[in-house]
Amino acid sequence: MAIIEVKKVNKTYNKKQVLKDINITFEENKIYGLLGRNGAGKTTLLNLITDRAIVDSGEITINGENVYENDNALEKIYFMTERTLYPEDFKVKDVFKWTKEFYSNFDSKYALELAKKFSLNINTKIKNLSTGYNSICKIINTLASNAEILIFDEPVLGLDANHRELFYKELMENYIENPKTIILSTHIIEEVSNLIEKVIILNNSKIISSDEAEELLDKAYTVSGLTENIDKFISAKNIVNIEEITSFKSATIIGNLTNEDKKLAEDLDLKFSKVELQKLFIYLTEKEEV
Ligand code: ADP
């Protein structure tokens, strides 16, 4: 069991409130997408969860235990960050050995298999790795850690398309073989939208959505047709985006479609379509901070 509970958490840096009254539960064995624009506070939230930073107020627990200076709780998590925690003089194979010291369930055989798949030379020193291979080394370390909770912060930065594909494939295989809680923090949504079961969107210091990906998408729809008809349909609705070309308009709306809506749309000859996660995310987070 590995449940993370974030309760009433606030965090301020230099008088700027980065996280405001955050409440969220990460259930066990689910894949979460933590989505937000750059600077939304994703890394800050993950740093708080892994006790790399301290909450101003509120509480974060893993299986009911507060994470603050709690090695027992923290060793359930492997957090892949941009920061490199091991000496740069280490070779890749030394990193694997080093990780095993801290994560006794680290699977060395699996790490070597992954290194082969990604064509990562285990005899290369960390300081001589390219940005992409540096990320790959960390990805492998994380996947092989066998921790109950894996957290990836912007994991694919610097990776080419083939390696990104391979990462998503290996992540899914790892999850299917050995279910665990996975948090993928990213602003590149398109690529992860098929992987994630739950979506958490951070915007302006707050969580604006934490839903099953399917449910979130079911809450929004796009309606298109003649401008004058669309205008009749969308009055008093929660519109998140409007696009207009000549006399045609399409509007994206958050809300459930009632039978009345459906009837009206039929009368007005309007068409409905689904919204992609990436687009919905952009609409929901478009407004700049004030
Ligand atoms: P994200 O991961 O979503 O891009 P971050 O959590 O990195 O966002 O940053 C959110 C905000 O908090 C930014 O304005 C950033 O400058 C600020 N911030 C994050 N960490 C620190 C820190 N250690 N010291 C000062 N400000 C910080």
Automatic annotation (TrEMBL):
Provide the alphabetized UniProt keywords: ATP-binding, Nucleotide-binding
Pfam families named among the record's database cross-references: ABC_tran (PF00005)
Q: Its domain of life?
A: Bacteria
SMART domains xref list: AAA (SM00382)
Report the residue ranges that make up the ABC transporter domain in this protein.
Answer: 4-229
Q: Which GO terms describe its molecular function?
A: ATP binding
Q: InterPro entries, alphabetically?
A: AAA+_ATPase, ABC_transporter-like_ATP-bd, P-loop_NTPase
**Name of the protein in question:** ABC transporter ATP-binding protein
